[in-house]
């Protein structure tokens, strides 16, 4: 196996430097109060530099930000792409339209509207590439029509991207999302498929393609990671965590030789790093500014791998004390290819916030039979949802914050 990856690694070095079919733009929020956005994109591998130009109109892209390369991603034996990211600053007040392009002429510019205090989010996990067919990408038409109707202003993509985020399949996935992610910010996390297929490029590709998350929200929140980080959006403090550190599959990590291999030592170290960071992050939340705290990850607490009440569940052991201490309001997860919700409950001496499973966006399985959604205080399956659920966070009323509204 090591010989196979050595051959693949050598082969990557001689790939032809063809141009990608699109820049695959995707935005994300820095979320530190600055109003800045991060932008990720791809170019051909022979580009020595790449700059994004932006401004108030497509014929006046007066500002520019130099891109930082995060490395190359293999698409086919004859094509690799180079990943870039840059921070867009000085964008104007909420509601301002920003045009941007990789050329100062603006002939192919995209645009987005600077987010305000009230945002609606499309939240889903486990959406495959349309190249996979079957049920993969089934949510895409709904997301596209909802974006045209301005029904949401941000996306939370909760892991298991593309099935898998490698080669042509991963490239098609990024292309299919570009009409959305070039207009509204998308924040992601990794799932078990990124970890499981790390040796084949899924996790390295995630790290490179979403490097803007690490440089933006990651750096601002103190993690400098795109696997766990936080950001403020309106009246919500979002916390994104890497649930694979608590999973039952091999925990993959790169060695000094560049090869990815399983390491339980690395898992333990990452658990401690993430727990320490999470405590630091939650302790700094200013509830008068962001009265709601929402935690997002891929695996729900009931799949780590045992039930949350069972011994050995490291999510419960390490995170429940923090979720209770800092009064987390809500959690979102994917992984289960279904849609259902769990009511707030108590495990041991800790209060567990409600959580919602939204993992039916279009996985690589056939479509499941329709069943009735039910609300339960213990883990169970609900109905499959084809339309991505949305969460809206309204501004606080004068007498105090109103509750989060949830619709599907």
TrEMBL record:
Pfam families xref list: Metallophos
Disordered: region residues: 371-408
InterPro entries: Calcineurin-like_PHP (IPR004843), Metallo-depent_PP-like (IPR029052), MPP_PAP (IPR041792), Purple_acid_Pase-like_N (IPR008963)
Record key words, sorted: Glycoprotein, Hydrolase, Signal
Catalytic activity: a phosphate monoester + H2O = an alcohol + phosphate
Enzyme class: hydrolase
Signal peptide: 1-16
Pro residues: bias regions: 392-401
GO molecular function: acid phosphatase activity; metal ion binding
Superkingdom to which the source organism belongs: Eukaryota
Domain Calcineurin-like phosphoesterase: from-to ranges: 123-339
Family statement: Belongs to the metallophosphoesterase superfamily. Purple acid phosphatase family.
Protein name: Purple acid phosphatase
